[in-house]
Specification:
Layout: H1 6-35, H2 39-56, H3 59-62, H4 89-111, H5 116-143
Length: 144
Amino acid sequence: MRHYTDRQAVDRIIDANLNRVQEGVRVCEEFTRFILNNSALTKELKHIRHRISALCLLPAFKGCIGKRDTESDPGTTIHHPRELKRARPSDILFANMQRAKESVRVLEEFAKLKNKTAALQFKKLRYRLYVLEQKIRERIERIG
């Protein structure tokens, strides 16, 4: 088993969560675009995804990109049966919205070690995701 310094571990955490949040938001974006056919919701999600991409480019985070060690990551082999239980497209949406919110929270916390202003930006994005999730939920309930 490989051991990492605190700095290396933090870089790996940030890298993994930057990737995870962008993937999760993209799945939600595809749902609002192709299933809800809603340009306003799609635009909001796209804006969030691009804002996260912009935060990735900050000097504090540039060194984090590509730091994951997927081959020796013990988390890649852990699967929960719930991951495969999706009955409706909305199940996919809400699972990925949760994934995105959790990842942004992790980024908010670990960014405090590198760039406090970015940590606050991640916090704002997390709250935007909360609001957006509610809007999407209301839209889904309206259309039945």
